[in-house]
Amino acid sequence: MNVSFSAAIGNFDGVHKGHKKLLEKVKNDADKSGLNTKVLTFNPYPFEFFKWHKKRIINEFDKKEILKEIGIDEIVSIEFDEKFRNLKAEEFFELYIKKGKIKSLTVGNDFKFGKDRSGDADLLRNLCKKNDITFSLFEDFKVDDVRVSSSIIRKHLEKGNFADVEKCLGRKLKFTGDVIHGKKFGTRISTPTANIDLQNKEYCFNGVFLCSVMVNDKKFFGIANFGTKPTFDDFRQSLEVHIFDFGENIYYQSLTIEFLCKIRDQIKFESTDDLKNQIHKDIDKAKSLIKDYE
C-alpha cells in the first residue's frame, strides 16, 4: 500500500497547546491532500543525548498516547545516538523526509536539523521545494500574550505553578508508569508507597504533590514524592505515590498519576522521625485540598 504523509518534526515534549495547533494544521493538510499523518520525534531527546541542563516534561508512553488521541496515524521515534547526531542536514532530509514519503511538512520556526544544527528553516524549505514537498513554517502560539513553549512549562513546573501548566497544556499534567519494587523507604516510615518506573529518564520538576491516581479504572487521591530522597542520601530521581484509603497489591500494574498541586519542596530532615512527622502533616494538608479537585 503506497501511503504518503503530512508530517511534523520535533521533540513534542509535553504536547502543549502550541504543539496541538501545529498538529491541527498537519491534519488539515492531510485531509485536503488525501494523506495520512505522521510525527517524527526523538528518543532520547537531543538535550538528553548532549546532557544539556534541561530535563523532560512527560514520558514517552504519555506523549505517544496524547499524539494518538489527537489523531496522528504514525509516530516515528528516532533514536538520537552518535550515528544520528553526525548526519548532515541533507542526509537527514533524504533518510527521514524523502524516503519517509512525506509530501507535506510543517515545523516550528525555531527548527534546526543535521549535524551541529547546521540545517535551518530556509534550507529545509529549499530541499522541500526541489522535491515537490509542501513546506510550512508554524508561527508562535500564545496564551495570555505569552508564547507557549516547553521551556515556559518547565519554568512553571519548577515554581509549582500548576494552574499555568494546565493553561499551557490544555489538560492536567499526568504520568503513566508501572509499579516496581523500590527500597521500601515508605514502609520504613509507616507510609507505604507505589514506586513508579521512570524508564531511566529525568524530569524537570520535583517536590511533594497532591495527586489523583487511576488504578484499574478507579480514581483515588494520594500524595506523590517526585525527586530525590535527601534524608536517605538517595539522590536519584524517583516517583513514589502514597494512595489514600488503599491497601491492594499493585506491583507491575500500570498507574496514571495526575499532579494537582504542589504541597512543598523537598528538604533533608535531621532524622527519620522528623520526616515521618512532616509526612503526616503533608498528608493532612493534601486531604484538606481534595475538595477543590473532586
TrEMBL record:
Pfam families for this protein: FAD_syn (PF06574), Flavokinase (PF01687)
EC number: 2.7.1.26, 2.7.7.2
Superkingdom of the organism of origin: Bacteria
CDD domains on file: FAD_synthetase_N
GO MF term set: ATP binding; FMN adenylyltransferase activity; riboflavin kinase activity
Domain Riboflavin kinase: start-end pairs: 168-291
Pathway where this protein functions: Cofactor biosynthesis; FAD biosynthesis; FAD from FMN: step 1/1; Cofactor biosynthesis; FMN biosynthesis; FMN from riboflavin (ATP route): step 1/1
InterPro entries, sorted: Cyt_trans-like (IPR004821), FAD_synthase (IPR015864), Riboflavin_kinase (IPR023468), Riboflavin_kinase_bac (IPR002606), Riboflavin_kinase_bac/euk (IPR015865), Riboflavin_kinase_dom_sf (IPR023465), Rossmann-like_a/b/a_fold (IPR014729)
Catalytic activity reported: FMN + ATP + H(+) = FAD + diphosphate; riboflavin + ATP = FMN + ADP + H(+)
Matching Gene3D superfamilies: HUPs, Riboflavin kinase-like
GO biological process: FAD biosynthetic process; FMN biosynthetic process; riboflavin biosynthetic process
SMART domains cross-referenced by the UniProt entry: Flavokinase
UniProt entry keywords in alphabetical sequence: ATP-binding, FAD, Flavoprotein, FMN, Kinase, Multifunctional enzyme, Nucleotide-binding, Nucleotidyltransferase, Transferase
The family this protein is said to belong to: Belongs to the ribF family.
Function comment: Catalyzes the phosphorylation of riboflavin to FMN followed by the adenylation of FMN to FAD.
Protein name: Riboflavin biosynthesis protein
Native source organism of the sequence: SAR86 cluster bacterium
